Amino acid sequence: MANHNKRAIVTGGTRGIGKAIVKELAAKSCCGVLFSDVAFIYNSCDACAAEIEEEIGSLDTKIVGFKADASSFEDAQATINEAIEKLGGVDILINNAGITRDNLLLRMDEADFDTVMNVNLKSVFNYTKAVLKPMIQQKYGRIVNIASVVGLIGNAGQSNYAASKAGIIGFTKSMAKELASRNITVNAVAPGFIETEMTAKLNEAQREALLRNVPMGRLGTPEDIAKAVAFLCGDDADYITGQVITVDGGMVM
Ligand code: NAP
């Protein structure tokens, strides 16, 4: 791979796991090169985006935020075009944007199902399709999709979310098979329970119950996930494709 900065696009980069991924990819010596330039997509928080551009960007790395709804096919194509223009290309795509709308199926309405499927799963289709041509042309690409352990084992009250994450795993393996001969790897990282705003909604009893199932006895950090993602984007993972790496303190084994 050429020795320029790698160019990465991260969906949902303003908070939690996505923010840690932006930081990790931009860090010195990540991914077999000195730095990566990163474009990140966010949905609502303009102030968060400006703060990240300021905090992580430097003379060596470009960090640019784009406001777009990841579930919109048109937005994705337009955003990727703009990001490619700003960064000069794209080598890495991290499909991280995700939401929850939890409820038991009896109480879950159609909008809760559709919104979660569109933001979590359709966004992966949208952004992967948008980067495909440039990656195929340059015969290089690294795609990492953020799934969840819930997509592997299910969870009561999260049928919409679990279906979207299981869908990401099937999509990942299919894309890995389609793209392997083009030197594009496609993998998934399945986080366990990670300390972010998504899990901050849990009460103390729920938290204790969760921890009883985590052999390592703690929730994960966004950095735990970001390091696995950066590994899959780096030269050391050149021969790994179609895999789901579970980063969960031993919860699912
Ligand atoms: P988070 O803290 O809630 O952050 C979500 C990010 O996604 C934000 O940057 C948000 O941007 C963005 N986003 C949400 N809807 C979007 C949309 N329609 N278009 C574009 N961006 C959108 O979430 P997180 O906990 O870091 O989770 C990140 C990923 O990891 C998700 O896919 C999640 O399912 C997965 N995951 C998380 C856990 C966990 O324990 N936290 C466990 C397993 C898997 P704005 O702030 O601008 O809205």
Explain the overall architecture:
- With 253 residues, the chain is α/β, with parallel strands linked by helices.
- The protein has a single domain (6-195, 222-247), classed as 3-Layer(aba) Sandwich (Rossmann fold).
- Helices cover 45% and strands 16% of the residues.
- The protein contains nine helices and seven strands.
- The protein has helices at residues 16-26, 46-56, 73-87, 110-138, 150-153, 159-179, 197-200, 204-211, 222-233, and strands spanning 6-11, 36-42, 63-67, 92-95, 141-146, 184-191, 244-247.
- The chain has a seven-stranded parallel β-sheet with strand order 3-2-1-4-5-6-7, sandwiched between helices.
- The longest helix is centred in the middle third of the chain and has 29 residues, at 110-138.
- The radius of gyration is 17 Å and the shape is globular.
- Bound molecules: NADP nicotinamide-adenine-dinucleotide phosphate.
- NADP nicotinamide-adenine-dinucleotide phosphate (NAP) binds next to helix 1, strand 2 and helix 7.
